[in-house]
Amino acid sequence: MLTVEGLESAYGDSRILFGIDLSVAKGEVVTLLGRNGMGKTTTVKSIFGLLKPRAGRILIDGEDMAGRPSHLVARRGLGLVPEGRQVFPTLSVEENLVATHRGGRGAKWNLDAVYRLFPRLKERRRNGGDQLSGGEQQMLAIGRALMTNPRLVVLDEATEGLAPLIREEIWACLRAIKDEGEAILVIDKNVDALARFADRHVVIEKGRVVWTGTSAALRQAPEVKDRFLHV
Fold first, then answer.
1. Which of 30, 44, 78, 202 is deepest in the core (most CB within 10 A)?
2. Is there a domain that residue 201 lies in?
3. Which of 177, 203, 1, 164 is nearest to 81 (CA)?
């Protein structure tokens, strides 16, 4: 569904990505792992048209979308949960969700579906986005992305700054989303939690892919975590 080939991106004269390759198939959960500053968010921005790549291809269902505007990428079925959540602070929970709703034939995500996934959002549906806890804002950011009825959900720093119990709740919800058949590309630092439900992992170091493999392979390669993921 999504294939990234030879992706190179930069901010001005500062090159960040040096030929990133990754792919996500329908219904698959893939992680993008690496220490801070290695190019994970830059990869996401490049995929979504928030940063124009210098080179490479970003194929969605075989069509090259590299450098295309963000709204066209979204229309092709990609939904983003951005780093920092970025909920609309002056809108209520329900208004945040309705603002991004994209229906149509076969659409399965609507208010009722999101509220079933996140009952707490239903309880807080009349509260403003700036009246929520960090965990509730992350639930809202995920729900907002789902309301676009994407075929691939991309989460940048899925549980950053959240308490352990809230992180577990987010992981449980991502497993439920996977069970619904959604493809997921997730960035996070909690490698052990990701390995419990992700299908494959892509590790990057200084803008280059240095390792890729299944969860079973990652568990059997502690040197990968020691060398590329631990601070």
1. 78
2. yes
3. 177
